[in-house]
Amino acid sequence: MIFLIHSETTDGTIDANLGLPEYSYYFVLRAFRPLLEEMGLTVAVADPEREVDRLARNARRHGETCVFLSFSPPHRRTYVARDCPTIPVFAWEFDAIPTESWDDDPRNDWRTVLAATGRAITHSRFAAEAVTRAMGASYDVASLPAPVWDAYAPLHVAQAVPELGRQRTLRVRGRVYDSRAIDFAPYVPLRCPKHVHPALPDHAGSRESERDITLDGVIYTAVFCPLDGRKNWFDMICAFCLVMRERADATLVLKLTHHRCDEVIGAMMKDLAKLPPFACRIVIIDGYLCDDSYRRLAAASHFTLNTSHGEGQCLPLMEYMSAGKPAVTPVHSSMRDYVTGENAFLVRSHPEPTSWPHDPRQMYRTLRHRIDFESLMAALDESYRVARTDPARYARMAQAAHDGLRRHCSRAAIRDGLAAFLTAQPSVRPQRVKASA
Q1: Residue 129 has pLDDT above 80, yes or no
Q2: What are the structural domains, with CATH classification, of the chain?
Q3: How far apart are alpha carbons 437 and 418 in whole angstroms?
């Protein structure tokens, strides 16, 4: 079998596209590709409308079958091929998929594209249930998370205990803002009204510069796009600084995934300036880390932190937990599939109305999850206590994270289900529509 694969972001554009809508599909495709290559010939296509049907017809002439996997949400460039079975592969973090159209584009109603393809792959049971509610019980939708465990599992050390006294030096390409070197006075509200944007601290370097940073103590790491409001970084920073305000050995590393972060980093500075004085350390990394540097950061961390309102699967959380890093996180949306009380310090959350993220009307049509701030503070406090005073429990949680993610997102766990889904005939006959749909 030949697998044709496509993502809007490619190896050549990921640095410039970092943080733009749907950039994370590049990492999902990259995680699936080795598994697909074990199952058949895999061909990346740059322009689906020009390439997919031609390649499928050529394969058929040589007795081969093709499947086109479009790693993209249905309303974007999910080209429905005429001569090749098409399967959209997408993440979703809300309880309802879009079932209305706007801007004279029928693709904004996802049912249009899903009906045309006849089947789909999502990355969580939560998302699969949302598709089933909209498309009917007979619609073929698979829950297959990105197989990231194998790449991060080697970072796990069995019976690991937190080495709190050892310094860890990381090579970073990008700007680094360190709270220990920042004067927050220029950012206090009386000196810095909302419409005023003071210059960022000048010690950070440039996004192209390389430097070594040293981390020590109890290290928490969060990886997210700061311009994505669903990531809820304000609660994260505020809770951490309040809980750890007298703990100089507590460090929060914020690895930002966007190519233009000046304004949001300025907003972070203003929020940090509002807080009571804190002894803990905040390190903001603004830049694209190569695979080796990214893994070194994961290996250096003791915990991974998430405070989002919803997740389609949350690759960074899955990667760090695969590496044996316990999480501090809510257990809603996709995280219900792999987060437990054995591998994470759980944060309560509650549903609240919201709109679909790409709906310019901002109509309330679905639900997200509001973080319980008191619960977040309690989870952070307990995680720190465990790291400092209960190494046996930390080791158990690290092992549970590693083992739980192996069952959830290793290649071995996903291979059979993926193969069966790709080779089966859809239960619902695809509805022929215009190719642009």
Answers
A1: yes
A2: 2-147+412-423 (no CATH), 149-409 (3.40.50.2000)
A3: 25
- Mean pLDDT of the region 192-205: 77
User: Strand, coil or helix: what is 86?
Assistant: strand
**What is the full DSSP assignment across 180-233?**
GG---GGGSTTTS-TT--PPPPTTS--TT-EEEEEE-SEEEEEEE-TT-GGG-H
- Provide CB contacts within 8 A for 339, sequence distance 6+: 317, 327, 329, 331, 346
The upper half-sphere exposure of residue 83, i.e. CA atoms within 13 Å in the direction of its Cβ, equals: 15
Q: How far apart are CA 166 and CA 372, in angstroms?
A: 33
Eight-state DSSP code of residue 432: P
pLDDT tens across 75-122, in order? 876 888 888 999 999 999 999 999 999 998 899 999 999 999 999 999
- pLDDT (tens digit, 9 = 90+) per residue, 140-198? 999 999 999 999 999 998 777 777 778 888 888 889 999 999 999 888 877 666 666 77
The confidence score (pLDDT) of residue 436 equals 39
